[in-house]
Structure formats: structure tokens, C-alpha cells
Amino acid sequence: MFSVYKNTFRRARTTLIIWLVLLALWVLLELSVFKGMAQSGGMNDLVAQVPEAIRSMFFTLDISTIGGYLNARVLTLILPLLTIMFGISLGNAAIAGEERHGQLDLLLSNPISRTEYYLGRLLAMLSMQTLIVLALLVYFHLFAGLQGINLEEVRVLDAFTSVLLLGFTASTLAMLVGSIVPHPGLVLGVSGGVLMGSYLLNAMAPLMPDLKDLQPFSVFYHYNEYLPIRNGLDFTRAFTLAGISVVFVCAGLWRFNTRDLSK
User: Fold this and answer.
1) Is 226 helix (H, G, I), strand (E, B) or coil?
2) Looking at per-residue confidence, does 96 or 37 come out higher?
3) Nearest to residue 127, comparing CAs of 212, 12, 244?
4) pLDDT score at 109
5) Which end of the chain has the least Cβ crowding within 10 Å, N or C?
6) How far is it, in rounded angstroms, from Cα 51 to Cα 105?
7) Taking the CA atoms of the chain, what radius of gyration do you get in angstroms?
8) How far, rounded to the nearest angstrom, does the alpha carbon of residue 86 sit from its chain's CA centroid?
9) Position 263 in a domain
């Protein structure tokens, strides 16, 4: 299992470095935009021009504060998208990608069971996602300090823990789908479609009363609906996200062990 873990990290090191560099530039840009708009006093004018329906989705907190800005732009929009993209790409590569390129049979010809392979890829995938989120935490605190932005009043660690759990949900879902069908394109489509539907359900529920009872079925309801950047991590919702990932892992492992990989 650990040989699979090390091999996965070795093969992904270039991709990881690119992600880490680009994320550093993105964080620097986001904080620079916030500081510039805060100094010019244009935050509230910008929000006033946004339709009420959009404000209810993205501008729950005062956007002129760092907490409100991070919630509206980073935690509600950009970071979930990046997290899901990264997670799905990892989960897709773990099973479907290797099988599509004819590498899976070769890897399993070594003295390693399917379970060991699956768990090795899973552990590497979750470790990479954790590394990315830890790097984001460092970047935000470092660049905020350099620009004189105070993060002490916001719960960045709590919010990013929820980001990490969302990423785990995306990657384990993609790994599950890849265990069912050996087609990377289909894995991307199904995983992305499920998460997009989940996002829209959570976003539209406050505007459509008929959807309100269904909102808890969205992973995004458990991700950021309770505003962890202000209120801290809700352990019930955090464990719900973790539990969903565990279900995906168990289902994917069972299917991977029982499917005929020659088909």
C-alpha cells in the first residue's frame, strides 16, 4: 500500500508544484483586490449594484470586511470550484485514468491486492488535498500579514477545514465513479454533474420554498451554509461531509474489488 502511496506522490510532484505556485499567486491577487477596494471605499457600492437574488447567494456577510469578502468571493465561489476540480482530477486519475491508459493491469501485476492499491491511491489523494489546503492557510496568513490585513477576527482554519472536507467528498466521489466505469470522460461528467446539481440545490433553496426541505441533501449545505468563517466549524455538518466520503470510499472499494477489470 505504501509503495503505491509513494509512487503516486512521485508521479504527481510536478502537478503539485504547479498548483502550489498558481495558488500562491491567486491568494496574493485576492488579498490585493480586497485591500485596494477597501481603501477606495467601493465595496458597498459594488454590492448595491448586484441583484437581490445574487446578494442572497453570495453576500451573506458585510463584504467590506475581510471575513465577508473571503466568504463571498473565496469560500462561496472560487475556492469550492478549484477544490472540486482538483479533487475530481485526482479521483479520476486513481482508477479510471490508469485503466484507460492500460496501466492498472500492470500495477496490479505486482504483489499487491486490489484493496492495497485502492487504499494507497486514496491515502495519497487525501494527503495531496491536505497539502494544498495547508499551503492555502499559510499563503493567506503570510500575504495578509505583508499587506496589513488582520485575519484575527475570522475563523480561517475552521473555514478551510470545511473546504478540505468538501474536497474529500469530490475526490472520493470521482474514485467511486471510476471504480464503476473505466472511462475518464464519464467520470468527469458524472462527478461534476452531481456536484453542480448539489451546488444549485443549495443556492436555489432559499429562493424556492419547495426546495427548502431538500437543501440538507446538498453537500454545500454542510460545507458553508452556516458560515464557518464567522461562526466556526459545525462538527455535526463536518462529520456529515466526512461520513459521505466514507460511504463513497466503502462503495468504491467494494465495486473495485468485484468488477472485471478486463471489461
Assistant:
1) coil
2) 96
3) 12
4) 78
5) C
6) 54
7) 20
8) 7
9) no
pLDDT at 232: 94
The pLDDT confidence band at residue 55, using thresholds 50, 70 and 90, is: low
Q: How far apart are CA 122 and CA 130, in angstroms?
A: 12
How many domains would you assign to the chain? Answer: 1
What residues contact residue 54 under an 8 Å CB cut-off, 6+ apart? none
Does pLDDT of 56 surpass 70?
no
Asked if residue 164 is part of any domain, the answer here is yes
Report pLDDT for 100: 83
Contact 240, 222 (CB under 8 A): yes
Q: Residue 62 above 90 pLDDT?
A: no
User: Locate cell 477597501: which residue?
Assistant: 38
What is the number of other CB atoms lying within 10 angstroms of the CB of residue 63? 24
Residue with cell string 485591500: 35
pLDDT attached to residue 57: 57
Q: What is the pLDDT of residues 158-193, one digit of tens each?
A: 999 999 999 999 999 999 999 999 899 999 999 999
Instruction: Identify the domain containing residue 187 by its residue range.
Output: 2-258
Distances (CA, A) of 97 to 34, 104, 202: 39, 9, 31
User: How many Cα neighbours within 13 Å face the side chain of 160?
Assistant: 19
Question: What DSSP character marks residue 206?
Answer: T
- Closest to 83 in 3D by CA, of 199, 204, 182, 227: 199
